[in-house]
Specification:
The chain is of the alpha/beta class. 39% of the residues lie in helices and 13% in strands.
Length: 283
């Protein structure tokens, strides 16, 4: 079965490298990506642009716009780019220049989406600071992926990363497809309601476990954890709204695929693992 991984990172930020080396035990490199993804029939992936200007600075308020895939000088040929946004620089005298750089990059490169790091940056997604970004998404027909749920940094603020916030913008921007990352975990039922209610909102199931094969297998044996996720998927009641993602390099790919197969009825594998991402990101 061919797979599209709708949520990966190809970034040299310190927290990802540390996790890959010490927790997930993944080879976080160009060659490591190809080796792991080829072994697991990953036909394509969507990389979430994110950067830091100094080791350990993420979430970095000084990063230029847009944030790109910067792990190595060349990204894998089958990895599509979802550019990241630093909203801090979308204010004051830098606003027009920053927006110009974002639009120029979209025009001159193959961009399949825009990523907002809600929670990491301390703005609600319905804040006016993001309005020009939504206008660009409409103009160029791009989906928007929104981080939701727990943040992988203690400097994040959880009040900005709740999935219910996405309802506010989904109602206003009906021409944009929004993807709530990580099923909004731990607020998975809130996420389920938002995607159930709004025809233009989807969710990916990346990053629900961080770790190596042993950790994934351990979590799969925890009935409360598995039922926590399954309950939301059943409530959402539409597996065409769910996208497979891993959050590579934060987890062992083979083990994570096995975990997701335990969550999804087999008859929906093709949609969750391939078709939905292809449609939402227009791949």
């Amino acid at each position: 079965m061919e797979i599209i991984d709708a949520h990966v990172h190809f970034s040299k930020i310190e927290s990802f490298i540390h996790t890959a080396n010490n927790i997930s035990l993944v080879d976080c490199s160009y060659d490591g990506y190809y080796d792991e993804f080829n072994k697991n029939t990953i036909a394509a992936s969507v990389g979430m642009g994110v950067e830091e200007t100094g080791e350990g600075n993420f979430p970095d308020t000084s990063c230029h716009n847009p944030m790109l895939l910067d792990l190595e000088n060349e990204r894998p040929h089958n990895m599509y780019e979802c550019i990241g946004i630093n909203p801090v620089l979308l204010t004051g005298i830098t606003k027009d220049e920053q927006l110009g750089k974002i639009e120029d990059y979209i025009i001159n490169n193959t961009v399949v989406g825009i990523k907002l790091y809600a929670g990491y940056y301390h703005y609600h997604v319905y804040d006016d600071i993001y309005k020009p970004i939504y206008e660009l998404a409409v103009k160029y027909g791009l989906p928007i992926v929104i981080h939701s749920g727990d943040t992988y940094s203690e400097r994040g603020l959880l009040k900005y990363s709740k999935p219910l916030d996405v309802d506010e913008i989904a109602v206003v921007y009906r021409d944009i497809n929004f993807v709530i990352a990580h099923l909004g975990d731990p607020w998975v039922m809130d996420c389920a309601e938002v995607i159930y209610k709004n025809s233009n909102v989807y969710a990916d199931i990346s990053g629900l476990i961080v770790g190596d094969k042993k950790q994934v297998n351990y979590m799969m044996k925890q009935k409360l954890f598995m039922n926590h996720i399954k309950r939301a998927l059943v409530y959402a009641n539409d597996y065409k709204k769910i996208l497979y993602g891993s959050d590579w390099p934060l987890v062992d790919t083979k083990a994570y695929i096995g975990f997701v197969k335990k969550l999804i009825p087999k008859k929906y594998y093709k949609d969750v693992f391939y078709n939905n991402a292809k449609r939402v990101f227009n791949l």
